[in-house]
Amino acid sequence: MQINRHGAALLLLFGTIGNLLNILVLKEHSFQKKPCAVYLSWSSITSLIFIWSGFLTRVLQGYSVNWPNENQVACKVRQFILNVTWAMGAWCLVGANIDRYFCSHSSITVRQLSTNRMAKRVILGMFIFFCLLFVEVIYCFEGSIPNVPVLCYGRNIPCRMFNDWAALLFDIILPSICLATFGLMTIRNIRMRVVQPVRKPTTNSGSRLLTRFNDRNLTRMLLIQVSDLFQV
Question: What residue ranges are annotated as transmembrane (predicted)?
Answer without folding.
Answer: 6-26, 38-60, 80-102, 122-145, 165-187
